[in-house]
Specification:
By secondary structure, the protein is an alpha+beta fold. Among the domains are: about 130 residues, no CATH class; about 70 residues, no CATH class. The chain has ten helices and eleven strands. Strands 1, 2, 3, 4, 5, 6, 7, 8, 9, 10 and 11 form an eleven-stranded mixed β-sheet that branches. The longest helix is centred in the last third of the chain and has 34 residues. The protein starts with 14 loop residues before the first strand and ends with a helix.
Amino acid sequence: MTSPRPVIRGETSVSLPVSIDYLSFTVPGGNVAEIILEAQAFLGVSEVEDRQRGMFGYRSSIDLGGYGVVAYGGEAQRGTVLVSVNGEGCRRIADLGRVRGWAESVGARITRLDIAADDFESVSVDVPRAIQAWRDGLFKVGGRPPKARWIDDFGSGEGCTLYVGSRQGGKLCRVYDKGKQLGDADSKWTRAEVELRAKDRVIPWDAVTEPVRFLAGSFPYFAFLSLIAERIRTIKRATEISIDAVKRWVKLAAGKSINVLLQHFEGDFAELVVAVRRDGIPARLKGWWGAEERLMAG
């Protein structure tokens, strides 16, 4: 596995935070109830829900508060239990070392792992430069260069995406405008991530607790980056962008109504808030909101 090296060809070397954005693994012959309890503990989820259906070939599945699932049952699965944690769930996990320690103790095997690096100002990474890197052969790992696909937003502000590799091949890279995806059309935040699947390869648990070196070694392209493991910085930036997007949506959808209500309550902001607020977290903030505090507490 190669290590990160300084940026060359005149580029500026910067440190990019790296995080785990998806984790899925199977436990052989696992006790479903115990696995669900463990998943609740490392996710900080108090309630789960039976999805009343299966997934990924498993007969039954349990929703882990929207942050992942536990799937089980079905003869073809040979008694294994699947634990799948999405990006929002990964941000809630305060101690990935705990997850690794428990998973290794029960013989768990990683089936999918997504590792992401974030460049908030597009200093070293953006979609056009990633496209050029592919043309320069910096995604080639022996043999023929992997196939690439580019999705252009044609200036809409929704963000562009470059795909390199394939899920069928077990390794897929995405470079995309993350800030624009979250709703900020002027954001420079670019995310580069690699999705690894256990297809003709064993994904070691080292990759969960030491994602930097595994991302750097996935494609030669990532050897041009100086990488650091820092999740809180990423969460802060995503929360800021998401909050701004929520403010814009509220202003557009209900701004005039709020103005009328404020006059009705004779300028009493507190009374207005009590009258219109609802419990819960908007979908666009779920996963980011409170994740920083959870990591700090852990």
